[in-house]
Design brief:
It is a single chain. This protein is α/β, with parallel strands linked by helices and about 250 residues long. It is built from eleven helices and five strands; from the N terminus they run αααβααβαβααβαβαα. α6 runs parallel beside α8 and α8 runs parallel beside α9. The chain starts with a helix and ends with a helix.
């Protein structure tokens, strides 16, 4: 009877073993695989995350809404732009000046227009430093003609000027050799030439980050960048005095 009993219970033990151990083993294997691929997964998830964010809040109005309420009087200078502005540690490079950062990574000029009233006009700065256009060239929110990008930059500048805010316009930065296509790089030159001319016509200071940051063949050098697109601290160290000079220049008028 004992042998018979063992024969009856043995299959049950194997069933429980299979049901318990095998799923755990498979789960651990998949987890290890995912950990090994985490960087790749993160990269693949970025477009989806950006899509969800823009669908729910296209202009990114929620990002700085509460911070804007906390500004009691006005901000002396607002740096307005995309990730290049967003990642800029203004407190480090402009210590004690109270400059306000209103950059949002991944944004295009059309998104910036949506939040320009809230993030610039409503906090009543003396100066706004506008750096925009790179993500339009990349096609983050769809392909745009150069003249559409230019018109969006014009709209922001005119809106600021209408409210008595002094305007500083900045060039789009160069990118590394391995980043973007030749056609996209050509757009940088076209847009920068337009910004320079528009700034001159309207007596707005123009900050030429492009010429200051490019190497002899027009690329962003590794020494000034973290990824071929965004400045490193060394890159921001080149940019900061150029921006400061233009801010001081426009405040004297």
């Amino acid at each position: 009877m004992d042998i018979t009993a063992n024969r009856k219970t043995l299959p049950d033990k194997w069933v429980w073993l299979i049901l318990g151990v095998v799923p755990i083993t498979v789960t651990l294997f998949l987890a290890a695989y995912q950990i090994g691929k985490i960087c790749e997964v993160h990269e693949l998830s970025r477009p989806l995350s950006h899509y969800i964010e823009t669908v729910n809040d296209f202009g990114g109005l929620r990002r700085y809404q509460m911070d804007n309420y906390a500004i009691q009087n006005h901000a002396p200078v607002v740096f307005f732009g995309d990730s290049i502005t967003d990642y800029w540690p203004l407190g480090t490079f402009f210590a004690g000046k109270g400059y306000v950062n209103r950059g949002i990574g991944g944004q295009t000029t059309e998104q910036m227009i949506v939040r320009f009233q809230q993030d610039v006009v409503d906090i009543n700065p003396d100066v706004v430093v506008i750096l925009a256009g790179a993500n339009d060239i990349r096609g983050i929110t769809g392909t745009k003609r150069v003249d559409q990008i230019e018109q969006n930059i014009r709209t922001m500048a005119e809106l600021a000027h209408l409210h008595g805010i002094r305007v500083v316009l900045c060039s789009v930065l160069p990118v590394a050799k391995s980043v973007w296509t030749p056609a996209q790089k050509a757009k940088i030159l076209t847009i920068n030439a337009w910004i320079r001319n528009y700034a001159s016509e309207n007596q707005f200071p123009f900050v030429d980050y492009y010429d200051a940051m490019k190497d002899p063949v027009g690329n962003l050098p590794d020494a000034l960048s973290v990824d071929g697109l965004h400045p490193s601290l060394a890159g921001y160290k080149v940019m900061a005095p150029l921006a400061e000079h233009s801010i001081e220049q426009v405040l004297k008028r």
